Here is the input.
Amino acid sequence: MRIWFKKLLNISKYLIFLALGVFVFWWVYKDEPLAKYKSAFSHLNYFWIALSIIFSILSQISRAIRWNMLIRPLGYQPRLYNSYFAVLILYFVNLLLPRAGEVFRCTILGKYEKIPFAKLAGTVFVERMVDFITLMLLVVAILLSQFGVFVSFFNTHPDFKANFLNLFSVEHILSGVGILLVFVILIFLFNRYYKQNKTDKRNTLIRRIKLIKQNFVSGIKSIAQLENKWLFIGHTFFIFVMWLFMLYVIFLAYEPTSHLSLQTGMITFLMGGLAMLAPVQGGIGPWHFMVYETLFIYGIEKADGKVFALIAHASTNLIYLFLGMVALLIIPLINKPRILKA
Here is the structure.
């Protein structure tokens, strides 16, 4: 009964977030005539849309290669096509269930390459930390080069400014310290229990926790055993560049934004990225809002900015949906001979 209630709670949570995203999306586009979007899509330069898709595929391949670089020091040699399909499934699942894609990609690759889930989770944790550090460096660089744009954005959106400043209020800082303290206490109590019972071979829970802990830690340590750290950094840089160009070339596909610079693309990429932190499937709603408001600062009419946001979001996520579904269909077929042989 409790399991079913927990599942129902999780489903309800995702549905609520989806409903909120759809509401924001409806609120953004409710006053715009449908004919405007039909006209915009019919006059797009689809060469640039195709190029955006190519950049997307290249970023996914690079991400699969980078992931394999972290897995190989663990003693496994995953096939690149399996890692690539797992990455495609990651994007596909994230469009349906926010933040669930990482679990699915570890499950998929673990199933077909016989790699413990916890070890793969450790490598994904490393990946996420590397991406987070890279994003923070990018944020600092863009903030310094485009500080006036952020000031202008917050001045024209006092509610965003108030919410941003509220993050650093005394109450939030004390709450964060309190949560951290509780977390440290729980770790201390768990370690104490673990040390007292780790020699008890009859304790199934301890044995499982010990194995998961060892696998997860070994996954994290894989970054220290990389064969070529500079190549790993190169792939990380390449992935972010591809993400940026995926968005920028859409500027060139749509006439009202075709004159915008790469620098404008960088700030739009960053602001859209901040919107993706919202736990909404595919960032639907919040991403569109942040993008068209950012473009408005650069002189793009809001109506045109909304059209651009719709084009960019649709072209990116439709390819994620298509490739993800293809990957789900293909991966069991190409691995079937090996499974039957085993």
Summary: The radius of gyration is 23 Å.
